[in-house]
Design a protein that fits this description.
Layout lengths: L19 E6 L2 E6 L2 E2 L9 E2 L2 H12 L11 H13 L4 H10 L7 E2 L4 H22 L6 E2 L8 H11 L5 H14 L2 H9 L4 H8 L1 H10 L3 H24 L7
Parallel strand pairs: 5-6
Antiparallel strand pairs: 1-2, 2-3, 2-4
Length: 249
Amino acid sequence: MSNNQPFARPELPKRFYREVAVAETAAGHAVLLDGRPVKTPARRSLAVPARDVAEAIAREWDGQSERIDPATMPVTRLVNTILDGVLADPGPVRAEIGRFAETDMLFYRADAPERLVTRQRELWDPLLAWAEERLGARFLLAEGVMHVAQPQASLAAVKAHLERFDEGFGVAALHQVTTLTGSALLALAVADGRLPAEEAWALANLEEDWNIEQWGADDEAMALRERRRQEMQAATLVLAAHSPMTEQT
């Protein structure tokens, strides 16, 4: 007799600690559970250069109830990824951000209805004007999803700007904002201080919000969007502490 039941979700680990603290160590600001340092999955110390990031991680650990649920700990997950997989060699992640600029969401516009076309133009075009002024890059627009090749000089300008991000925390946070929004330009505008994170998030979800206005929201889709928004907040927290661009405005 076959068993067609879906696999059960693995049981979450029990909370095993009482107190959460942040302490300054040789490795940076470390998160401590009952005085013992938290470790990443690769057994590195969960320590970061910026104290506000460490404090955000500590709040996530302190906010756990009977069980520890990593899904509710976006800053911890991001920092684990940085420490274990990005910090030693951020170059490949930075290159991937540059590739996003080849097909940036801001380049691809709706051809109808006219109110959506107008909304995209009014809200997205100022970011393209900023990119031309700040990065020295002009881009071509297209209707629909048909690929349009961007000027090589513009792509080179974006990649040259990305070279300013030379350490893993800033690169990884910028990459997460890029993938969550679908736009390297939005991510760079956040890093630059040109856009607050919430405004960038709204611009990234402009078309989805339009559809919600017309036909209503799906509960499951909105729950997923909220989780992604929290990941965006985690990334922008780290990015604010590690962006080289705000120092040069």
